[in-house]
Amino acid sequence: MPDRDSLVDAETNIYTKREGEDITVRCYLTFSGSRKLLCKETCEEGNILINTTSNEDQRGRYSIKYEYHLIGSSILDVTITKLTKSDSGLYTCELKKMLSPDSEDNFIIIVTKGEFDPQNHENISQ
């Protein structure tokens, strides 16, 4: 049986950024919830980066902002600043609510070596 790292949903978004850049990813969650989690890989002990009941929180380079929507998906914006190669991998946004199923969304970040240099960037829209 494959491990979780090899199981990627067809709808899992993949983002590629360079070392030193910041990223903000929007997670869409089908249920509302009082507890918000941001995790590297799964939301198990040792992988939890943020675990809060607040609508906004920050832990080091990681921050979240939650927007509740009565109709449609609720949104959890995740920001990671000053990306490093070790930030590459699968992330899980999760909402937990008593007596209801958990709601989660996943995304993958790939951090590449080197910083963005606009002088070496070709304009491909010519």
From TrEMBL:
SUPFAM superfamilies: Immunoglobulin (SSF48726). It holds the Pfam family V-set. SMART domains: IG. Residues 12-112 form the Immunoglobulin domain. This is Immunoglobulin domain-containing protein. It comes from Oryzias latipes. The lineage of its organism: Eukaryota, Metazoa, Chordata, Craniata, Vertebrata.
